[in-house]
Amino acid sequence: MQTIIARSLPNLKKNLNNLKKNKKVGLVPTMGCIHDGHLALVEKSKKLKYFTVVTIFVNPAQFNNTNDLKSYPSQEKKDLEILKNNNVDLVFIPKVQQIYSAGYSTYVKEINYSDILCGRLRKNHFSGVLTIVLKLFLITKPYAAFFGEKDFQQLFLIKKMVKDLNVSVKIISVPTVRDNNGLALSSRNKLLNPKSLKLAKKINVHFRKIRHLHYKLTRDLESYLQKELKKNGFNDIEYLEVRESATLEHPVTIKDKKSLRVFIAVNLSGVRLIDNYKLK
Ligand code: PAF
């Protein structure tokens, strides 16, 4: 089957209306710059025999910094080639005006977990994410949608939105895909200079040590890791926090390592990278 490319809402609608009644849509929302992390989501959707729709849309509503939005990498031609080679059924590439028409003013806002971790310094980031994700759900009417664990808070908030707003889309998560050195794949890795890339590949080395540490207090483990990373060249850590995987709560003591994750955001020569690791 050929990959369909839809660049307008009517064209997308026409193609989705043509689907057989019992065909389920599997949605993989992306901002482009497709890498193996995205392809793991595609692969899962294809395996489940869904009509796999990948969207490529750099969503301005989730950027609170215009330079970050302007410098976000894009490679449409290459993306289409990769997606075709991976038998994606349809790629939807809308223009900003089609998604946010003049006078647009309706946003989704989650009020308890959106201002921690990645939301602390990026005001309204998650409102932008939830708004576009809900819009893409309404536009493509998927049976299931796929998201990576690398953006763990995003995944958590999307699951929460779906539950809170009774959205009937199944959310399927996929573990973080890493390169041979353990660096989590991200479109932003492309923006790293060789020195920063080398440093980025070390993040997981420090985190892998956690499994062998036996701290009782969360803050002691956090401050040990902060010191380790600083000593090894990470001068700009935005946050480093241990939280419960299921609730994102920040516990005082470390009781069950299995239920905890450490979350990190670092800036390396102006490029912001995030990752998270299970404590056990
Ligand atoms: O994870 C991303 O690439 C984006 O936040 C998403 C989910 C595609 C929404 O723009």
If you had to describe this structure to a student in words, what would you say it looks like?
This protein is an alpha/beta fold and 280 residues long. It folds into 2 domains: 4-174, 3-Layer(aba) Sandwich (Rossmann fold); 187-278, Pantoate-beta-alanine ligase, C-terminal domain (Pantoate--beta-alanine Ligase, Chain: A,domain 2). It has 10 helices and 9 strands. The protein has helices spanning 9-17, 36-47, 66-71, 76-85, 96-99, 125-140, 152-164, 194-200, 203-208, 218-231, and strands spanning 4-6, 25-30, 51-56, 90-92, 144-148, 170-174, 237-244, 260-268, 271-278. The protein has a 6-stranded parallel sheet with strand order 1-4-3-2-5-6, with helices on both faces. Strand 8 and strand 9 form a beta hairpin. The protein is globular, with a radius of gyration of 19 Å. The model has no long low-confidence stretch (mean pLDDT 97).
Provide the gyration radius in Å: 19 Å
- As for the CATH topology of the largest domain, it is Rossmann fold
Helix content: 25-40%
Parts with pLDDT < 50 across at least 5 consecutive residues: none
CATH architecture of the largest domain: 3-Layer(aba) Sandwich
Structural class: alpha/beta
Strand tally is: 9
Report on the biggest sheet: 6 strands, parallel
CATH superfamily of the largest domain: HUPs
Distance between the termini: 43 Å
- Average pLDDT: 97
Q: How large a portion of the residues is in β-strands, by DSSP E? A: 15-25%
Bound molecules: pantoate
What's the quaternary structure here?
single chain
| Text of the CATH class of the largest domain | Alpha Beta
Task: Tally the structural domains.
Answer: 2
Shape label: globular
Strand order of the largest sheet: 1-4-3-2-5-6
